[in-house]
Design brief:
Layout (H helix, E strand, L loop, with lengths): L2 H17 L8 E4 L2 E18 L6 E16 L2 E12 L28 E13 L2 E8 L20 E11 L2 E12 L11 E15 L2 E12 L9 E13 L4 E13 L8 E13 L2 E10 L1 E2 L2 E2 L25 E11 L10 E10 L6 E14 L2 E12 L6 E11 L1
Antiparallel strand pairs: 1-2, 2-3, 2-21, 3-4, 4-5, 5-6, 6-7, 7-8, 8-9, 9-10, 10-11, 11-12, 12-13, 13-14, 14-17, 15-16, 17-18, 18-19, 19-20, 20-21
């Protein structure tokens, strides 16, 4: 039986299991002081990509199953989780880079959701009083996911082979990670792009000072792989968030500054700044957020974030997952609303965002983008529709993307 048949059978079994009222939702006691907690999640997504170039439009229908378990005994736990992604259509290019695979279809636009079957997480953890240590293949998502994340938008998750320790002492919190491998979201058919080895150090400390939360971070990326060695970097920065109560609304504020330099490689010689500021409030039932983000450029090289949840930033059309050499400035505003008075569609929410994209160096207008989202729940199933329309001026080409997604998890 081939991979697609195996995964299709597994997804069918998952649907039956998820629909069964007998499916366990709480940890099961399997011994004195020992519990077993099943992990099961199914997500299906349709993604269409239309671009103003010679490529054929992409239509990708994919389904993902994550299944596993966590066994806890006292302060210790073992977690194992597998992940399988199956493509129900083949009218898209799964890989934007050259690789020997029948999933690379260069006549089509790219949708980076390759068929895959892998061990997603396999970890041992110890949890004490306000302390935790995790060893093994694990999910890591730090701060606002701008620098280190699990890249959760893609069907195949990004994880790390690492040891991570966290501790809290009163208002202070500390987080330290050493990783030796970045398991990318490209999947097992991506050849050398399946994983990038190296030395990765993530250091993070923060303090809660009343309404203000302040964090300092250091992210050191030293790739061994020649394919990505030029992306090795050292980044040092601060992130501040605050909630300010006013007469008519509470205002959420966020600001961040970082400095990124080359690290242990002569491929690039630069020192680029990162800046971000955002303010949001709820007014007359509408949520309004405005912000500005800068990924700087120096000496012809731009600040990069190869471990980030890049779909979360700079537009849902994913035009800037790699920062252009001249850097990027993104000014954006979002208007959204949650519709609590629609009982048949619990969780109904909608949002509209506008982005203006410009270079950091050279005063170049890249383009602008409109993004719209609509989400709601039907029983246990969460549903999401996304429309993204990028209008190119001097960077890339006009691009329209449509996403339809349904997911259920226990």
């Amino acid at each position: 039986m081939n991979t697609r048949s195996c995964l299709a059978s597994g997804l069918g079994a998952a649907v039956l299991a998820l629909s069964s009222p007998a499916f366990a939702q709480e940890p099961v006691v399997i011994g004195e002081g020992i519990t077993l907690d099943p992990i099961l999640e199914l997500r299906m997504r349709y993604e269409r990509v239309e671009q103003d170039n010679a490529l054929q439009d992409a239509d990708a229908l994919t389904a993902r199953l994550r299944a596993g378990f966590e066994v806890k005994a006292g302060d210790f736990a073992v977690l194992g989780e597998g992940l399988g992604t199956v493509a129900l259509t083949d009218s898209y290019n799964a890989f934007a880079f050259p690789v020997v695979s029948d999933q690379r279809r260069p006549l089509y636009s790219v949708v980076s959701d390759a068929e895959n079957l892998e061990i997603n997480r396999l970890q041992l953890s110890w949890t004490g009083s306000n302390k935790e240590v995790i060893v093994g293949r694990q999910r890591i998502a730090l701060d606002d996911w701008r620098w280190v994340s699990a890249a959760p938008w893609r069907q195949n998750e990004q994880t790390f082979d690492a040891v991570r320790a966290q501790a809290a002492f009163g208002p202070m919190a500390f987080d330290a990670t050493y990783a030796i491998s970045q398991r990318t979201a490209f999947g097992r058919d991506a050849g050398p792009h399946q994983a990038y080895d190296g030395d990765f150090i993530f250091l993070n400390s923060g303090v809660n000072a009343g309404p203000v939360k302040l964090k300092g971070f250091s992210y050191l990326i030293d790739y061994d792989d020649p394919l990505v060695e030029a992306l090795s970097s050292q980044t040092y920065g601060v992130l501040a968030t605050a909630n300010v109560p006013l007469v008519l609304a509470n205002v959420d504020l966020k600001a961040s500054y970082a400095r990124q330099l080359d690290w242990r490689t002569g491929a690039r010689d630069y020192a680029a700044d990162y800046m971000a500021a955002e303010a949001g409030a709820s007014v007359l039932g509408f949520g309004v957020t405005g912000g500005w983000e800068k990924l700087g450029s120096d000496n012809g090289f731009a600040l990069q974030t190869p471990l980030a949840a890049r779909h979360r930033f700079n537009g849902l059309a994913d035009m800037f997952v790699t920062t252009p050499n001249a850097g990027l400035e993104d000014a954006y505003v979002t208007i959204g609303r949650k519709f609590t008075a629609v009982p048949l569609l619990p969780g109904l929410n909608a949002a509209l965002t506008y982005h203006q994209f410009d270079s950091d160096v050279g005063d170049v207008e890249y383009g602008h983008e409109w993004d719209a989202t609509l989400g709601f729940n039907i029983g246990r199933v969460s549903l999401l529709a996304v429309y993204a329309d990028y209008d190119a001026v001097s960077f890339a080409v006009d691009t329209t993307k449509i996403y339809l997604m349904a997911g259920v998890s226990f």
